[in-house]
Structure formats: structure tokens, C-alpha cells
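Structure first, sequence second, as always.
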């Protein structure tokens, strides 16, 4: 009996031991399977997550290249800006952290949470909450940093236009890159949130100015605070630009245009360098970087005076009497007149059943071409244009650079319009009427030009007939001062003009400023001989007896005022083109501006060749 019991107990213990061993083995198998899953199957992902808990990569934005004038005066700089972000992985509980943060920066928590929800992506990617913090807010955040887990303040370079509104249309501005631009492939190396050039030089030379991003590998604690830096790849700054503009002259031009609508452009006739390019009214480039409200943008976009338009290259106007330079060249070269040809001006020209009036009501009397240029006799050029015909006149206008973009390195340049018989047939489906040629010959009718185009014409006359592509870039250098690219002088053509014709035209332009009967006699300068041509562009067609009354009642019907000039008259160093919208008279409105620009440049010690 006892032997039997011992046997039963032994079997029972064996069964219990086997069961325990099976359970232990099962537990070890489960543990082994879990370890295999965690270390082999999911090891790489878990390793990444573990590293992200303590190792972060912080982006380092590159300083954008600086912009200088031709003499090395700094125009566009970068300044440090403190940006506020939140890392959601470290900020938990997010709602509570955001609520605390809102008290310190004065922004409603609901507004901050809306930003978080809108830009929510990776738990480890900082969400930008506010840019360019002021010192008080920055200090409050630093003091309460322990209570704000996941809240990060980064220092980034921010574009700063030293003299806002100055040369704004030429220099341009920055704005945040959008989705379509990121996907276009035209901006390699850029990321969401980066600022790129959207207008002017900032856009044209974006690839040189942008620079290359860097990065810093840091170790953070459980609250997201940086413990130490592990490795840094420094950002590479963008290249610096030296423009051809003279800042002293640019500032003067901007001041002369203040409160007016129009443009003033100056060029070195010997190489095409743009010395100044002012368009008025202007705008504050810093507002685009700092951020503007919808109302501010609507004011700029819908303003009747078009502050966002670079009037020097984008606005098109009838050239008025400045076009008489073209008519004189064409008539002399085609032999329909010569230096001794005389036309009588009684103050009007009867042509068919129409009367074409001269600006001088009682007429100029007998006029030769030099006198007609100097005194801007409409009747003389009516008759010259009549003898030429529209198509010959159009050919010379095109050969002088009108009707085509000048090629300046700025976006959205207008081409203007050179009318001809073919153009009218194609565009309007109507034949050309010979009476229309008379209006075109004095710069009215369908004629359209930009101030830069007329600057090109007067500059070529000043330099013996050579036409240069307008140049705005002097040189591009690295941050260390090594030259990357030089702006090259580029000849794009010659005026269709003989030396004899050129001498006649230049004499007429000289007399326009330096003889008592010249239309710009009041704008002469002591010690500096200026040659130039005034113009008064009619905005709307009106009967002679209604003209003054309607202009008084409707200022928008007042004529545009033109003046193109160069100085000194021999060996010119500067050519200028000025237009004032609704300025009425070129002699009294535009010419004084050009005169002061010339004085500023030549008397400012700028006569040396650059």
C-alpha cells in the first residue's frame, strides 16, 4: 500500500513538474518572441524613435547675400529675428502649455491652438507660432522656460531694407515661398517657410543671394531643452550684390518724385549702367518680410496711383514731343528734309477736313529742323511725318529700340507700341489713315513707350549712336570678397543715323536747353551744359476750346509731362528720362527734376569713370 502511494505521489509530482516546466518554457518563448519582434523586426524603427527622444536636428538658415550700390554703400542687410515655435512631442499636455504661453506673449490660446492644428505634422517638427519677437516677450519666455516644455526660441536672419521705399521697385522684396514654387523645382535647396525674392533684383539674382542651409545635431532632455551640441554643419551665406545705382542720386530722385506719380531713370551713356531708377509712389519692402494685413495688401494692390508698378519699365505712355527725336532722325536720313528745309508754322496745319494744332497757339513762323527740335514745333513735324509715311517712321522707331523690351534684368518689362499699317490691320482690322501719321510724328496717336526706352534713345544720341543694354549689376562677390560674376557692358545696336544727322539732332537738343526760345531754357545749369527734349503727352482727346476747362475739372485728364536729357552736352556722363503723370508741361514739371538729378550726380564728384 505504501509502495503504491509512493508511486502515485511520484507520478503526481512529475506531472506537476512537467506542467511547471511547460509554463516556464511558454513564458520564455513569449519573451523570446517579443524580444525578437522588438529587436529584429521593429528594431530599426524603435531605434529611430529612441534617438528622436534625445537627438534632434536643428535647421540653420543661411544669411542672405547683402546688396550694395556701385560705391559700396549698404542698401540691404540682414538682422537677427527671434522666432517662437513649439515641438508637440515635448509640449505635452499641449493645451496646458499653450494656455501658459498665451499669457506670456499676449496672444489668445485659441488663436495659438488654431495655428497648431493647421500646421500639425510630425510630433518632432517645430510648429512656428510667432515671428520676430520683441524684447519684452522674449524675456518673459526665457524667464518661464521651465514651465513651457517644448517651447523653442530660434534666432534666424531676417531681411532688412535700410532705406525702406528707396529703390524699392528695382531692389524688390522677399516673401515666403508657396507650395507651387516649392514643387516647381526652380528653387533647389529651399524648404517650407523659407523666404525668396518675389520682385526686382531680389528675384532676378535669387540663386546667388539665397545661400545654403546648415544644420546642428543636438541632444535634448525629456522637456525638449538642449543639453549639448553634437555636430554642426554651418550654413553657407549667399553672395553679395553690387548694383550700378548711385545711392546719392537714387535718394535725390526719390525725394524729387515724392507726392507725385511718375518715374525718373538715369543711365551712364558710355556703358548702359543704370545710375538711378525711381518709381513713385513707392512701397515699404520691410512690410513684405514682417508680414502685412489683408487690408494693407488691398491698399497697395488697388491704389489708383499703382505703387506696386515699376513705372520706369512697366508703365507705357505716349512719348509726346520726345518722339520728335525719332521723327527728325527718320526725316533727315530718308532725305525728305535737310538742315536747310523750312516749314512755316501759323499755329496749325489744315489736313483734309481736320485741323492739327501746334502747342504754340499763334505759331512759330518759319522753322528749320534745329529750331523745330529746340522749340518743339508741332507743325514742322506734322509735315515731316506726312512726307515720311507711317511705315518708314515705324522702321526708324523700331531701329531706335522702341516697341521692344530693353533687356534690363528685371521682370515684367513692357514692350511699348510702334504703330504701322500692318499692326493696325492685324490688331484692329482697319486700314491706316494718312492723317493718323501726323499724330504719330509728334509722339501721340497709338504710340506707347516706357521711360527706360526713351532713356535708351537719348543715351544713344549722347554716346554717338551706340545702344547699350541697360545694366543694373556691377558685380557679384562671395562673403569673402571673391568675384563670382561681373556685369558686362553689352552693345545691342546702333541708331540708324549718320554723323551729319547726329550733329543736327544734338544741336537741336542743345538749343532746347541753352537758348532763350528753347522749351527747357529755364532748366539750364550754370557750369554744366545740358541737352534735352521736353514733351507734353495728351491723355484724352479734347476740343481746343474745352481743353483747359475740362483739365481743371478732371485732374486725371491733365497731360503727362516728359523730359529726356544728357549732360555734359559733350562727353556725356549721365542721361536722364523723367515722366510725371498729369504733370501737364514737360518744361515746368519734368525738366526741373532732371536738372536736379544731373546737378546731384555731376557736382557730387561722380564724373570719374567707374
Amino acid at each position: 500500500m505504501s509502495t503504491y502511494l509512493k508511486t502515485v505521489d511520484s507520478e503526481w509530482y512529475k506531472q506537476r513538474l512537467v506542467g511547471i516546466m511547460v509554463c516556464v518554457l511558454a513564458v520564455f518563448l513569449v519573451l523570446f518572441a517579443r524580444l525578437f519582434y522588438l529587436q529584429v523586426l521593429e528594431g530599426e524603427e524603435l531605434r529611430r524613435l529612441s534617438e528622436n527622444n534625445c537627438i534632434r536636428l536643428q535647421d540653420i538658415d543661411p544669411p542672405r547675400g547683402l546688396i550694395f550700390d556701385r560705391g559700396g554703400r549698404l542698401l540691404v542687410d540682414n538682422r537677427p529675428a527671434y522666432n517662437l515655435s513649439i515641438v508637440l512631442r515635448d509640449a505635452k499636455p499641449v493645451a496646458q502649455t499653450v494656455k501658459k504661453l498665451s499669457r506670456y506673449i499676449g496672444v489668445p490660446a485659441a488663436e495659438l491652438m488654431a495655428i497648431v492644428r493647421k500646421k500639425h505634422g510630425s510630433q518632432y517638427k517645430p510648429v512656428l507660432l510667432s515671428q520676430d519677437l520683441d524684447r519684452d516677450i522674449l524675456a518673459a519666455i526665457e524667464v518661464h522656460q521651465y514651465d513651457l516644455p517644448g517651447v523653442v526660441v530660434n534666432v534666424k536672419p531676417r531681411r532688412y531694407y535700410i532705406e525702406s521705399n528707396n529703390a524699392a521697385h528695382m531692389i524688390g522684396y522677399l516673401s515666403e515661398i508657396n507650395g507651387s514654387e516649392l514643387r516647381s523645382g526652380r528653387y533647389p535647396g529651399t524648404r517650407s517657410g523659407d523666404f525668396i525674392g518675389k520682385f526686382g533684383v531680389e528675384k532676378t539674382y535669387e540663386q546667388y543671394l539665397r545661400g545654403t542651409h546648415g544644420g546642428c545635431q543636438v541632444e535634448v532632455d525629456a522637456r525638449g531643452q538642449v543639453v549639448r551640441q553634437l555636430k554642426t554643419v554651418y550654413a553657407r551665406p549667399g553672395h553679395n550684390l553690387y548694383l550700378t545705382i548711385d545711392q546719392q542720386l537714387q535718394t535725390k530722385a526719390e525725394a524729387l518724385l515724392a507726392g507725385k506719380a511718375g518715374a525718373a531713370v538715369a543711365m551712364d551713356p558710355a556703358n548702359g549702367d543704370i545710375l538711378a531708377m525711381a518709381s513713385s509712389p513707392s512701397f515699404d519692402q520691410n512690410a513684405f518680410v514682417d508680414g502685412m494685413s489683408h487690408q494693407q495688401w488691398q491698399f497697395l494692390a488697388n491704389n489708383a496711383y499703382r505703387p506696386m508698378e515699376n513705372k520706369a519699365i512697366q508703365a507705357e505712355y505716349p512719348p509726346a514731343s520726345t518722339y520728335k527725336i525719332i521723327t527728325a532722325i527718320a526725316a533727315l536720313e530718308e532725305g525728305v528734309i535737310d538742315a536747310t528745309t523750312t516749314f512755316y508754322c501759323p499755329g496749325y496745319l489744315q489736313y483734309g477736313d481736320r485741323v492739327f494744332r501746334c502747342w504754340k497757339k499763334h505759331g512759330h513762323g518759319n522753322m528749320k529742323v534745329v529750331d523745330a527740335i529746340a522749340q518743339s514745333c508741332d507743325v514742322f513735324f506734322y509735315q515731316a511725318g506726312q512726307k515720311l509715311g507711317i511705315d518708314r517712321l515705324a522702321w526708324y522707331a523700331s531701329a531706335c529700340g522702341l516697341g521692344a523690351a530693353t533687356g534690363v534684368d528685371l521682370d515684367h518689362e513692357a514692350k511699348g507700341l510702334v504703330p504701322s499699317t500692318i499692326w493696325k490691320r492685324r490688331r484692329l482690322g482697319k486700314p491706316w489713315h494718312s492723317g493718323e501719321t501726323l499724330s504719330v510724328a509728334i509722339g501721340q496717336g497709338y504710340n506707347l513707350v516706357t521711360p527706360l526706352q526713351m532713356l535708351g534713345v537719348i543715351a544713344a544720341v549722347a554716346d554717338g549712336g551706340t545702344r547699350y543694354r541697360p545694366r543694373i549689376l556691377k558685380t557679384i562677390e562671395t562673403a569673402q570678397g571673391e568675384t563670382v560674376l561681373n556685369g558686362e557692358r553689352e552693345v545691342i545696336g546702333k541708331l540708324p543715323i549718320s554723323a551729319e544727322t547726329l550733329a543736327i539732332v544734338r544741336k537741336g537738343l542743345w538749343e532746347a536747353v541753352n537758348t532763350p526760345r528753347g522749351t527747357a531754357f529755364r532748366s539750364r545749369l550754370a557750369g554744366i551744359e545740358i541737352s534735352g527734349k521736353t514733351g507734353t503727352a495728351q491723355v484724352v482727346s479734347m476740343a481746343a476750346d474745352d481743353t483747359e476747362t475740362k483739365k481743371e475739372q478732371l485732374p486725371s485728364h491733365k497731360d503727362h509731362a516728359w523730359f529726356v536729357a544728357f549732360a555734359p552736352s559733350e562727353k556725356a556722363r549721365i542721361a536722364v528720362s523723367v515722366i510725371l503723370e498729369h504733370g501737364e508741361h514737360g518744361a515746368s514739371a519734368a525738366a526741373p527734376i532732371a536738372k536736379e538729378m544731373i546737378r546731384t550726380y555731376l557736382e557730387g564728384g561722380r564724373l570719374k569713370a567707374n
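Margin note: Residues 480 and 552 are 59 Å apart (CA to CA).
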